[in-house]
Amino acid sequence: MRPTTSIPFQALTRLLLAVTVHCSLEISPSRIVVKFGDPVSVSCVASRPVRVLGWESVIAASYTQNDLSVQWRVDSLTDWIEEPICYGVFFTAPRQCEEKLNIVLYKKPDSVSISLVNHSSPVAEGREYHLQCEVQNVAPVQSLALRWYRGKTEVYNHSFSELSPATPVQVSSTLLIVPNRADNGAQYRCEAELQLGAEGPQPPPTVQSDVLSIAVQYPPDFRSPEEEILDISEDSEMVLDCTAEGNPPPVYIWTSSILQEQADNQAVLRAASLGPGVYTCTASNILGKKSKQFVIKHKSKGETNYNLATQDVFSCQNFSFTHTVLKIKVFQKVLQAMP
Fold first, then answer.
1. pTM value surpassing 0.90
2. What is the pLDDT of residues 26-61, one digit of tens each?
3. How far is CA 174 from CA 80, 116, 158, 192, in A?
4. Distance of CA 168 to CAs 30, 109, 139, Å?
5. Centroid of chain to Cα 205
6. Average pLDDT taken over every residue of the chain
7. Contact 42, 32 (CB under 8 A)
8. Please, are residues 148 and 135 in contact by the beta-carbon 8 Å criterion?
9. Looking at the predicted structure, is the pLDDT value of residue 243 above 70?
10. Least confident segment among 66-75, 200-209, 253-262
11. Residues in contact with 137: Cβ distance below 8 Å, sequence separation at least 6, in sequence order
12. Are 25 and 99 in contact (CB under 8 A)?
């Protein structure tokens, strides 16, 4: 309680108005940041002789007479609405003035958690999902900065400067994602940081969530989706590679009028006995399916030699007729020599 004085009402009014002109009080430090439950001590000093100097406070109120300084000291600060005011009653005008202590009482979050809203992993490629970050029991919320990370990259920053409660509160933030196959296995997390200024602890108090890994499902896609045309000789093995990427891993089905039996769930078809024709491979999973065709053209040895001989003839156009005549004459001599 402040000691009573015998200053008349009109004089007191004039003195209070004079506060805006000059006040001979200095609080040190002028701004203080205190962790919930920690001790605190602040000094108020008068720069001229004072009749009464004191602290007006819900807790630890105190005053002194004639001394030029007074301490406000609390062993454990737990009052969220505490606003200590240092006041002085002087011998000369202005006879009364006051200074308010700028005090910030803070508390780190009890927990920070991240989750998918109304869903659980895995997610489907191309669809919209919301991630939610919840911060429990933090103060002051106006000083809270909530950062979203994908891996080590910051993707979003949410502030709460528009809120006013001084007491601990629960807040949340949401992040919209539209995952694609490149996001499969991506790791998201959120981080709550109290930005309390230069007078606050350095580095700033920070609490992180656990990592949320996102599994992305997507339909099959071939590495080489174009139709493949292959030429094969009689004694070579044919390899038809239908490997596709998908999540869940795709199931394969081969169809062709040439196949004697269906080759199920084989990404690669190997066989020396594959005949000429069209072979269709279908890769599918729960999100879709895709097909790819392989066209086999079968060549015999004689057909290959004929093509080479024909190529030789037409590559030497000046002697093509001579070669043909020679072949005919040789053929005639063979016939004549036969019995």
1. no
2. 999 999 999 999 999 999 999 999 999 999 998 888
3. 28, 9, 9, 13
4. 24, 9, 4
5. 21
6. 83
7. yes
8. no
9. yes
10. 253-262
11. 107, 109, 110, 111, 168, 169, 170
12. yes
* Placement of tokens 């200074």 in the chain: 99
Topology classification of domain 219-299: Immunoglobulin-like (2.60.40)
Cα separation of 270 and 296, whole Å? Answer: 13
- Render pLDDT for 216-234 as a digit per residue (tens, 0 to 9): 999 999 988 899 998 877 6
Q: In terms of CATH architecture, what is 9-106? A: Sandwich (2.60)
Instruction: Give, for 253, the enclosing helix (H) or strand (E).
Output: strand 251-255
- The domain limits of the chain are 9-106, 111-214, 219-299
Helix and strand tally (H, E) in the chain? 3, 26
111-214 and 219-299 in the same fold: yes
Q: C-alpha dihedral over 144, 29, 203, 140, to 10 degrees? A: -20
**Positive or negative: CA dihedral 192, 195, 196, 202:** positive
Nearest to 150 by CA among 124, 127, 179, 125: 179
Can you give the pLDDT at residue 307? 38
247/133 Cα distance (integer angstroms) = 27
Does residue 102 sit in helix, strand or coil?
strand
Whether omega before 179 lies within 30 degrees of 0, making that bond cis, reads no
For residue 139, the 8-state DSSP code is B
Nearest of 172, 99, 97 to residue 136 by alpha carbon: 172
C-alpha to C-alpha distances, 177 to 128, 209, 215, 216, 246, nearest whole angstrom: 6, 18, 13, 12, 20
Question: 111-214: which CATH topology?
Answer: Immunoglobulin-like (2.60.40)
